[in-house]
Write a structure and sequence with these properties.
Chain A has strands at residues 4-5, 11-14, 19-25, 32-38, 45-50, 54-58, 61-66, 71-76, 85-92, 98-100, 104-109. By secondary structure, chain A is mainly β. Chain A is globular, with a radius of gyration of 13 Å. By secondary structure, chain B is an all-beta fold. The chains are: A mainly beta, B mainly beta. At the A-B interface, β5, β9 and β10 of A face β4, β5, β9 and β10 of B.
Chain lengths: 110, 110
């Protein structure tokens, strides 16, 4: 079992709709969770971090965490073509290292 | 202007040659990381360091070496023992969980 798992996609969403990205993790001792956006050929950029169960909203982005289910998700409202990218889920594990999922490719179609 | 710098942007390695990738940060972050990304893949952890003069192997450390003599610097050497070094190399640093990346170095084999 991979430490951090994501559906590789591609996930295709019409412009203006909600994009939903999911991630599961195996280390129950993990305390911090992150979502990164990576455009082709560029380095990842941090878009959301979440540390406690529930929802955290920042503009069009909402991160959701359920530690009991070991599940993290990212919702993008009013999807724009500029949101087309690969989204990486990352977990700060109990071994004090940051582990990344393989990423989900998101495509916003006009 | 705070941030993480990596150099060079592109690096060419000949057979049997060791090459060193530079990573410098002026964010006063304690922890630094090196990741490797292959085309269409996620990030795999090579080495990480929580404090000066201490570092740990990640998931794919074979064929790589690092040093952490200064808080600001975490160079990565790709040795001749790494038989498939062509990849995008990303350096990152973190203070309290939120992790930020440098622009990356693309390593190509001649």
């Amino acid at each position: 079992q991979k430490e951090v798992e994501q559906n590789s996609g591609p996930l295709s969403v019409p412009e203006g709709a909600i994009a939903s990205l999911n991630c599961t993790y195996s280390d129950r001792g993990s305390q911090s969770f992150f979502w990164y956006r990576q455009y082709s050929g560029k380095s990842p950029e941090l878009i959301m971090s979440i540390y406690s169960n529930g929802d955290k909203e920042d503009g069009r982005f909402t991160a959701q965490l359920n530690k009991a289910s070991q599940y993290v998700s990212l919702l993008i409202r009013d999807s724009q073509p500029s949101d087309s990218a690969t989204y990486l889920c990352a977990v700060y594990s109990s071994a004090s290292k940051i582990i990344f999922g393989s990423g989900t490719r998101l495509s916003i179609r006009p | 202007d705070g941030g993480i710098t990596q150099s060079p942007k592109y690096l060419f390695r000949k057979e049997g040659q060791n090459v060193t990738l530079s990573c410098e940060q002026n964010l006063n972050h304690d922890a630094m990381y090196w990741y490797r990304q292959d085309p269409g893949q996620g990030l795999r952890l090579i080495y990480y360091s929580q404090i000066v003069n201490d570092f740990q192997k990640g998931d794919i450390a074979e064929g790589y070496s690092v040093s952490r003599e200064k808080k600001e610097s975490f160079p990565l050497t790709v040795t001749s023992a790494q038989k498939n070094p062509t990849a995008f190399y990303l350096c990152a640093s973190t203070l309290s969980g939120d992790t930020f990346f440098g622009p990356g170095t693309r390593l190509l084999v001649l």
